[in-house]
């Protein structure tokens, strides 16, 4: 027997989360990460991003160019469409405003495309190319943020989730690294820059996850190193940098924050998407509708009106075609 109603008082809606989970897994997930860094200090990545995606800048350009790379990955039946947007040439232009314009234009364009698709008739298969997170790489050579860093983050903090990252952490001692982290956080607060805030762990989460969240929060800004070089250490091939005094391992949490950065990205993907949708995209959408002179509350009515107009137009065309076909059938066979 199928066991209908075997348990007294059990309706079955407790199974709803499993239904949502199955539907989400079948549909797959989309995520877009932007990488911005001053290439004068070398490639801001190659970060070994989740699922071992590596992005690197192949050449330095004098103008900012947007290079988006998309890969579809599957892990244990879960599909992820991951897009990494690189910005080679950032910081090289004489006029720093040129850097901002190109990047802001790209982010706004993705919002515009999403708004257009969302307002269209077929909203079933919308591809989300909105930028959900921006890794902003800060030079370790200095005593904190440069004017360009401050300008850039202030220009973008209302459009994207910014995660500050200190590059080339192996050029700093542990004391220098801690001092630079504190200085960067102080200057971020001083200039009123809004960076991505990791949410607190819920009270019902296990202690391990709570501790992980606490460690991740304490690690911001993340100090990382990047390398594509494989080095043999104790019979094992590891990714790192070889120095006369030893090896710096990319995926060793005692050497740098790379694993913490990757963990933050993977464990908070959903939250980054939600903040993008509920905060950054809604701000863009409101401003966009204000510019067109349309109150936000009228948007739903406008969509219904457009749909009705399209349906009426389709009916008129079908009636015209039916009339033409009827006239052709009634036409005498000998008449040209």
What is the fold's blueprint, element by element?
Blueprint (H helix, E strand, L loop, with lengths): L15 H12 L1 E9 L10 E2 L3 E2 L12 E9 L2 E9 L9 H24 L13 E6 L8 H10 L5 E5 L7 H17 L16 H13 L2 E2 L6 E4 L2 E8 L2 E4 L8 H10 L1 H23 L7 H32 L6
Parallel strand pairs: 1-5, 1-6, 6-7, 7-8
Antiparallel strand pairs: 2-3, 4-5, 9-10, 10-11
Compact description:
This protein has helices at 16-27, 96-119, 147-156, 174-190, 207-219, 258-267, 269-291, 299-330, and strands at residues 29-37, 48-49, 53-54, 67-75, 78-86, 133-138, 162-166, 222-223, 230-233, 236-243, 246-249. The chain is built from eight helices and eleven strands.
Characterize the structure shown:
β9 (230-233) and β10 (236-243) form a beta hairpin. This protein is of the alpha/beta class. α2 runs parallel beside α3 and α5 (207-219) crosses α6. The chain has helices at 16-27, 96-119, 147-156, 174-190, 207-219, 258-267, 269-291, 299-330; strands spanning 29-37, 48-49, 53-54, 67-75, 78-86, 133-138, 162-166, 222-223, 230-233, 236-243, 246-249. The chain is built from eight helices and eleven strands. 42% of the residues lie in helices and 18% in strands. The longest helix has 32 residues, at 299-330. It folds into two domains: 17-293, P-loop containing nucleotide triphosphate hydrolases (Rossmann fold, 3-Layer(aba) Sandwich); 301-327.
């Amino acid at each position: 027997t199928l066991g209908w109603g075997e348990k007294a008082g059990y309706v079955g809606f407790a199974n709803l989360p499993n239904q949502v989970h199955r539907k989400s897994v079948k549909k797959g997930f989309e995520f877009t990460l932007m990488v911005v860094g001053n290439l004068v200090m070398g490639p801001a990545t190659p970060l070994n991003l989740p699922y071992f995606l590596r992005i690197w800048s192949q050449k330095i350009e004098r103008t900012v160019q947007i290079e988006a790379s998309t890969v579809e990955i599957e892990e244990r039946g879960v599909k992820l469409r991951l897009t990494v947007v690189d910005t080679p040439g950032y910081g090289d232009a004489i006029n720093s405003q040129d850097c901002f314009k190109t990047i802001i234009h790209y982010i706004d364009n993705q919002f515009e495309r999403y708004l257009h698709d969302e307002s269209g008739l077929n909203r079933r298969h919308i591809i989300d190319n909105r930028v959900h997170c921006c890794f902003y790489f800060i030079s370790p050579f200095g005593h904190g943020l440069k004017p360009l860093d401050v300008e850039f983050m202030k220009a973008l903090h209302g459009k994207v989730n910014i995660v500050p990252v200190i590059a080339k952490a192996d050029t700093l001692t542990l004391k220098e690294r801690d001092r630079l982290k504190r200085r960067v956080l102080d200057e971020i607060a001083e200039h009123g820059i809004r960076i991505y805030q990791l949410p607190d762990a819920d009270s019902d989460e296990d202690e391990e996850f709570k501790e992980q969240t606490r460690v991740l929060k304490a690690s911001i800004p993340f100090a990382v190193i990047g390398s594509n070089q494989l080095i043999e250490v104790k019979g094992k091939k590891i990714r790192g940098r070889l120095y006369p005094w030893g090896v710096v391992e990319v995926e060793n949490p005692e050497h740098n924050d790379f694993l913490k950065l990757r963990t933050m990205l993977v464990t908070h993907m959903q939250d980054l998407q939600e903040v993008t949708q509920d905060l950054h995209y809604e701000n863009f959408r409101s401003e966009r509708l204000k510019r067109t002179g349309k109150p936000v509350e009228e948007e739903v009515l406008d969509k219904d009106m457009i749909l009705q107009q399209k349906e009426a137009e389709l009916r008129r065309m079908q009636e015209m075609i039916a009339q033409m076909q009827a006239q052709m059938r009634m036409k005498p066979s000998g008449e040209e």
